Structure formats: structure tokens, C-alpha cells
Amino acid sequence: MSGDRGGEDALVRAIRALTARAGAATGVSVGIGDDCAVLEPRAGAALLATTDLLLEDVHFRRRWAEPADIGWKALAVNLSDIAAMGGRPRWALVALACPEDTTAEEIAAFYEGALALARPHDVAVVGGDTSASPAGWLVNVTLLGESVGAPRLRSTAQPGDTLAVTGALGRSAAGLAVLERETAPAGVKAAQLADVTAAHLRPRPRVEEGAWLGAAGGVTAMMDVSDGVGIDLARLLGESAAGGRIDVERLPVDDATRAVAAALGADPIAWATGGGEDYELLLACEPAAFERLQRGLADRFGTALTAIGEVTAGTSVSWWSRGREVAVARGFEHFAGRPAASGAGA
Ligand SMILES: [Mg+2]
Q1: What's the CA gap between 27 and 19, in Å, rounded?
Q2: Distance 72 CA to ligand 1 centre (A)
Q3: pLDDT band at 144; cut points 50, 70, 90
Q4: pTM for the full model?
Q5: Domain boundaries in the chain?
Q6: 7-146: what fold?
Q7: Which residue of 102, 110, 282, 312 pairs with 67 in a disulfide if CB–CB is 3.0 to 4.6 A?
Q8: Spacing, Cα 76 to ligand 1 middle (Å)
Q9: What is the 35 CA–ligand 1 centroid distance (Å)?
Q10: Spatial contact of 329 and 266, defined as CB atoms under 8 Å apart
Q11: Ligand 1 center–CA 103 separation, angstroms
């Protein structure tokens, strides 16, 4: 599992090398390669910047995603990147391209969806752009935030650290599997179907949890799970020049995801490692800090934190189940020759 990077990571590496060759940038503490860029407009001030694209038939289908869902999710995926740094989101630029026949009501609903998530996080939409699109909906949100303490990076995990993840994994993939079907799977409770489809259409990024974790002490590295923990964990460990050992049995998978998987004959663990778009936080922490962090998240936010493995020396990432090393579904990779609309994050 180690060292085998897919197309998107190779592309990002090439872009990173090109920008590095363009010369030294001033006021850039962390450039390409983390969840956000960390910018220093003046000494002691840290600005976080992130951007994401959402494309029709790559990230969503109009058959099951309403304009308001698309607006909500476009903001959510960016909020999740700010959360991953332990930062506070502040200002969003929202750009939308859509077909000529899109109605004013649909466009208003899109912005209402984005604002419905922006408001509770005190994020202001301060600009953007609109255009007609010859090929479906295309959304780009850029989000700026501020760093309260030092930003939590991907690159600072240490051998011996505990690896942990918030919430549950595979929920979004379960929701996508339900949405892509023509009929609801038999034998799954309506509440469970609603739960997993909402996880896919309207994810709730861990903004408060991220800010608390970033300031709580003991968290050595953090990122959000956008493409699947299989690939995202390899990215975090790769940036940290470390390896990892993960216990597949400990991956948190909830009852709704298991019920949908059972009804569809799918593997919930493959959804958990490879489904992507869960927008949970993946972190490395000092082992002695884990229980305090777990209790803090449960007491303050009612959010679970589950230990799934540990950071190791070297660069090999291994997944274990009942004492044996196993292969796991890795996660979504753009430019890896996979079919479109199978879910993707950033
Ligand atoms: Mg991210």
C-alpha cells in the first residue's frame, strides 16, 4: 500500500514542482500540499485559503442533487478543509456556471443552500462569478479563514502517535449507493436511508470540532477525510515521511451504513476506506492525549473519536484485520482512469 500514488497525487506533485520553480513566494508559510494554504500577510497573522471544484456528473448528478444541495455541499467541502487546519472560516467566494435554461429560482436556491451552511458558521459570501455553461453545472468555492493558534498540518505526525478519526466512515458512500439506484433498497428503515443520503448530499463539516482539536494540545497532525481514509491516510503519512499501521476492525462504521451495505450486498469496510466524501477529521495525536481528546469531543459536541492505529517509523502503510495484513479499497482518485460520478472530494 505504500508509495503507490495515483494520478491526482502525481498531478499535484507536478504542479507543486512547477510553482516551486517559479521562485520564492513571500508571505507563504504553507503552500500546495495541505488542506489549506497558510498565508502570512503580515508578521504573526495567519490566513487560511482553500478552494474546491464541484462538477455535474463528476461529483453529483442533477437527477438526485437539488440546487440547494449543491450549494450546501460546495461550501461544506471547503469548510471541512479549514476545519482540518483547526482554523476559523470567515469569507467565501462562490462561482457558479450553469446551463442557459437554468431558472432564476434554481440559481437562488443554489445560493440559499450555500448560505444555509455559511450562516451558522458566521461565514460571509463576499464575491464570486457566474457564467453560462455548455456542459452542466460547475461550482467553485474559495474559502478564507483565520488560524487561531498554530495551524494543524499534515506533515507533522510522529512515529508512535495514535491515529484517530471523528464520527463514522462510509456513510456518504452508502448514501451515494442509495441515490444512484432507481428504487430504495428493501429492508432498510426509512430513517436510515434518510440519514445516509443526507450524509452524502448535505455533509456537516467538523468545524467546531476542528477548532477545538487544534487548540486542545496533543494533536500532532490533522486533515479531513475527503477522498477516503485509505488514500487520505497515505497522504497524511506521506507528508509526514512516516508509516502507519491501521486496524481495519476499529474503523468506525455506523448501523445505517451497515444496514444499507447488507441490503445492497456491498462491503461497508470498502465504503469506509474507499468511499470518500465523509468530511470527518483524521488526526495523529500523542498517545497520552487520546483519551482527553476523545472525552473533550464527546462532552462538548457529542462527536465520537475513534483510535484506528498508530504512526510508525519508515514509510510503509499497512492495514490489519484479525492479525493479518489485508488490502483495502483505497479511495477516490481523479485522473486514475476511474468512471465518473463515483464520488470525489478534495
Ligand atoms: Mg482536505
Answers
A1: 15
A2: 17
A3: very high
A4: 0.92
A5: 7-146, 162-326
A6: 60s Ribosomal Protein L30; Chain: A; (3.30.1330)
A7: 110
A8: 11
A9: 4
A10: no
A11: 32
